[in-house]
Write a structure and sequence with these properties.
Distance between the termini: 69 Å
Number of helices: 8
Number of domains: 1
Structural class: mainly alpha
Strand content: under 5%
Order of helices and strands: EEHHHHHHHH
Largest sheet: 2 strands, antiparallel
Length: 180
């Protein structure tokens, strides 16, 4: 029976046997990576090896400061790209369609909503991704690699979405104000 140390995948010096696979708790820890303890606390998850991802749903919403201040960028950082794009498109539409006073109120309101629901959205995305990976029946090592690749965070994608949105906003400003 081959033992693999997986500390780099967020499993604090635990060993995972490739003959029996991973627990859902190990999968979720690997997927989240940094700040696992904070997310588990926000989601109400105890460090229990019998944890079953199929049966669990977070029971409460709680505040996420990064989602409040960063909005769509936080979602992109946590690899929730569709959410990030939708949020940025909505914010851009708010900018185009409203005056500045209403725009500020709507953006603050949307950021409050993102801060309250950000952790819940992240759990739903993690659960969906983990269950898809689990269905592939990979070895423990392959599953850890897939969870690490699919989950975690992504600064490059966050910067890419930021650049695309910046180009669109600058283009819109040029067209609106006929700068060229």
């Amino acid at each position: 029976m081959e033992e693999v140390e997986v500390t780099k995948n967020g499993l604090e010096k635990e060993e995972v046997s490739t003959s029996y696979g991973l627990t859902d708790l190990e999968r979720l820890k690997t997927y989240v990576g940094n700040n696992t303890d904070k997310f588990f606390k926000r989601w109400g998850i105890k460090d229990d090896p019998s944890f079953d991802l199929n049966e669990y749903e977070p029971t409460q919403f709680n505040w996420n400061w990064p989602a409040f201040f960063l909005g769509g960028w936080w979602f992109a950082y946590r690899k929730m790209f569709l959410f990030a794009i939708v949020i940025e498109v909505i914010n851009f539409m708010i900018t185009i369609l409203t005056n500045s006073g209403l725009m500020d109120s709507l953006e603050i309101g949307s950021n409050v909503l993102l801060a309250i629901m950000g952790n819940w959205f992240y759990f739903k995305k993690a659960k969906e991704d983990i269950l898809k990976i689990k269905q592939k029946n990979l070895s423990a090592v392959e599953e850890l690699e897939e969870l690490t690749k699919t989950g975690r965070t992504s600064v490059p994608y966050c910067l890419l979405i930021f650049a695309v949105v910046a180009v669109i906003k600058v283009t819109w400003m040029i067209v609106k104000h006929k700068l060229f």
